[in-house]
Write the structure tokens for this entry.
Amino acid sequence: MTVAIIDYGMGNVRSVARALEHVGAMKVLITDNLAELREADRLVFPGQGAIASCFSHIRDHGLAEELGNLLRSKPVLGICLGLQALFDFSEEDGGVAGLGLIPGRVERFPAGMIDGGERAKIPQMGWNRVTQHSAHPLWHGIPDAAWFYFVHSYYASAADDNNRSGICQYGDVEFTAAAARENIFAVQFHPEKSHRDGLQLLRNFLSWDGT
Amino acid sequence: MPLSKRIIPCLDVDGGRVVKGVRFVEINDAGDPVEVARRYSEEGADEVVFLDITASSDDRETIVHVVEQVADQVFIPLTVGGGIRELADVRRMLNAGADKVAINTAAVNRPEFVREAAQHFGSQCIVVAVDAKQTESGCWEVFTHGGRRATGIDVVEWCRQMADSGAGEILLTSMDRDGTREGFDLALTRAVADAVPIPVIASGGVGDLNHLVAGVRDGGADAVLAASIFHFGEYTIDAAKQAMAQAGLTVRER
């Protein structure tokens, strides 16, 4: 079984590859080669940084036309900006259209929020709890309200409650920490940096058939 | 459910081994970095910081191999500092498996470096490390070169400037307290935490678990960093989290 991490030059994806290998992935590719991405059994759609440069990198790597088709074709795990890019629209960088694979919007955490009695810092950086809003094979073996590691200034809100698989609260914002639709599961947090429960989620992804 | 306050053990690394300097002079060997980092991650550490304290003189490739080995086996965020001077250094550490780099002296020498690094790699991986000493007027001054060189820069103003330049986080060390076990400089921590919109890690002076609690509760820190109290088995990360939870602070349970 081959897992391909879509490499479009955004951020360090080696950590994701190491974690997948650690939980038993036989073959992990970091690639922007269309043939390899088509042949892979599973895809990881990673990302960090700003969304406009994310999409310009995707264009530069010649992936813009095929990306939508690829992400509909097999089990997909989106991570961080990889989750945000799946939505219809992000207000980052003056407003950017997303891939539209999951209905909903991405917005910035408002300034001046209070979290835990103190001013909420932006980005949200650190460990927060994720409530499992709906059952999904990727939650197998992970307790409800488990802790995951987040680093982000923007958050997604799925329009359809059926796509809200995990929910997290920061300040007074409740956001979609895990989105699920058909063959796609996407998380705002970093499973590759979330110790035991993060590794369990990656293990579940390797055995998930996308249904 | 608020974001949890992080507990971060710091490993000073010299020639591939973990050491901890008391006031940066006396140094004791406390183990293999991979083993120590793995033990901390199993105990529930929220991140690990490596400071390469010999970066200026010794072989700088050693720390790259240490980071690679740790990143292969430890799946919590990893920050590396010491000798980060140019974009190539940042790239090399991130490629080796670090999630963030801590920039200290190079930021003082050329503040634009922080902006460039944040633009290239994203603010999320750029930590600015600030070594602070109190002055006679009651303010704090930025020091570099492991606390040996005064800069004349005001700490609070400097932290604001670094946040504006794209730093994702401030690692704030009190040089007056480092190694004393008397607790964080809480006034310093509070002054910076209130001045910047980004997370602040308090560092320098932890001698017991109440000091960790005070750093968050009174200092307003988002995370607390300590070394010697953990390295020699005096306190476990678990015990530190229990102390913070009992004080009403949100921590991530194992």
Summary: DSSP finds ten helices and twelve strands in chain B. The first helix of chain B runs from residue 33 to 43. Confidence is low (pLDDT under 50) at residues 21-29 of chain B. Chain B touches chain A at residues 1-6, 41, 46, 71-73, 75-77, 94-95, 97, 99, 121-125, 168-169, 197-199, 220, 222-223, 249-250, 252-253 (CB under 8 Å).
